[in-house]
Amino acid sequence: MITALSIKNYALIEKLTIDFSKGFSIITGETGAGKSIILGALGLVLGKRADLTSLKNKEEKCIIEAQFDISKYNLVAFFEANDLDYENETIIRREILPSGKSRAFINDSPVNLQELQDLGVFLIDIHSQQQTRELTDENVQFDIIDAIADNQQVIAGYQMLLKNYKADKSKLNTLIKKQSESNKEQEYHTFLLNELLAAQLKSGEQEELETVFEQLNNVEIIKESIDKSLAIANEEQFGVLSNLKEIKNSIQKIAPFSSEYQELLERITSLAIEFDDISDEMNRHSEKIIFDPELLEQTNQKLQLIYNLQKKHQVLTVDELLDIQAKLENEVVELGNIEEEIALLNNQIQEKGIQLDNLATTIHDNRIEAIPVLSDKMIAILATLGMPNVRFNIEVIQGETYFANGKDELQFLFSANKGTDFGLLKKVASGGEMSRIMLAVKAILAQYSKLPTLIFDEIDTGVSGEIAIKMGEIMKEMSQKMQIFAITHLPQIAAKGDAHFKVSKSTVDEDTQSELKLLTNQERVVEIAQMLSGTIVSDSALNHAKALLN
């Protein structure tokens, strides 16, 4: 419930601070006195957009602050989810700066308008003539039936399952599309893959083949060069090996005379050993060199195959070809996996469809049981509100389409008088009838669900006399379970309140101001008398006002 409201520099209000109590509060005042300003200020607290026209003094900022007792609203989870400090006495503050910028705070933590709107849903429900017309909306009608049917948890489970069901359907459509596209390319990809597999490529193979090809293609010059080198190395008198031996023998004679000569001997000895090994290696190579035209042709063909594949796939190495081969293999395997995924998803969708159907049937059955209860209660309340012959024809028909709240389609028909046909609410109900129906609905919902603070903005339009008295009694009864405000022009309703506030407008030094004041008992008698008789209060009006209050 709202416990206090503070307004500074808003519209016609320079400064206002007022406390509210639980129960049934009345707000009255002449047309144009500023009742809509109070609602506008509350609207800003609940997250409505603001502009500079809201400022009374354009040079100063506007501040609206509302305090709420939320201890019974179970909102701890909401505050944790939005990373806000929870307080049983929560303060919402809205500031509008002269620059036009707006700021919002919940318990001094800055928030955006969406967070303010999300919290506002749990705090205050303002019903004006416009909101009354929302009663003709099918979703609102379903909400009323579901509150009485206690369908909230079932619908929550249904909605979660429906979200997963739709996600699976979307994934299935994507896979089917991908499968269709893959099928078109599968033959070509399979051809490319088989071509690469047939090549039996190996990492590093290209370099080895190119080396073998160069050797085989130049076997004659290689053989000639090695044999010539061997001849120079091994010639008996002037060969390199013979000369090295001669040099070694000469240095060996002088090696004992100096460490430097000894070092030269060691180096020449090492050189002779190394060159002897080189000579043996050249001999082995010479013996292995054989001209093999068949191997040369095989090597050339394999290289040409590799070059052709590289050109086709626009790569430069065998490793890149192997990467493409692996990718093609994965695509072929993936196509098989897609078929398995499609089959699995189809099974999941079918199972979830069965579960959705079961939940939708439960929702439907609960609604069928709730409809007579709703209809009977509304007929009983409306009979006391001057609509003794009202009838409702409410039908829910289960179809095949999955809606957000089940599979039902709703027909909410209404007849106000005997002998008249049923029709849709929005087409056959008058403004006064809609106001009474809305009050009946709220009175019934108060018995089944935890409603926020309700503000009825002239919901009594089009009624008077005994009907107004009964409307006041209904709101009074509702206020036993929740905080109720009624903005009214009817003394019969005003007299039913636990507290009575008056909105008035005055002019001070050519400055028009509005204020909201809690009336004393005596002031309240005068206010109701004025509502009965006008500005000039007669004794009979005063007596009538006292009678109404008593």
Structure description:
- With 550 residues, this protein is of the alpha/beta class.
- Helix content is 57%, strand content 18%.
- The protein has 18 helices and 15 strands.
- It has helices spanning 35-45, 76-81, 113-120, 129-133, 138-149, 152-199, 205-217, 219-234, 240-254, 259-288, 293-313, 318-384, 425-428, 431-448, 465-478, 491-494, 521-533, 539-549; strands at 2-10, 13-19, 24-28, 62-69, 89-96, 102-106, 109-111, 124-127, 391-403, 406-415, 423-424, 453-457, 484-487, 499-508, 511-518.
- A six-stranded antiparallel β-sheet has the order 2-1-4-5-6-7. Strands 8-12-13-3-14-15 form a six-stranded mixed β-sheet. It has a three-stranded antiparallel β-sheet with strand order 9-10-11.
- Strand 6 (102-106) and strand 7 form a beta hairpin.
- Helix 17 crosses helix 18.
- It is elongated.
- Belongs to the RecN family.
- May be involved in recombinational repair of damaged DNA.
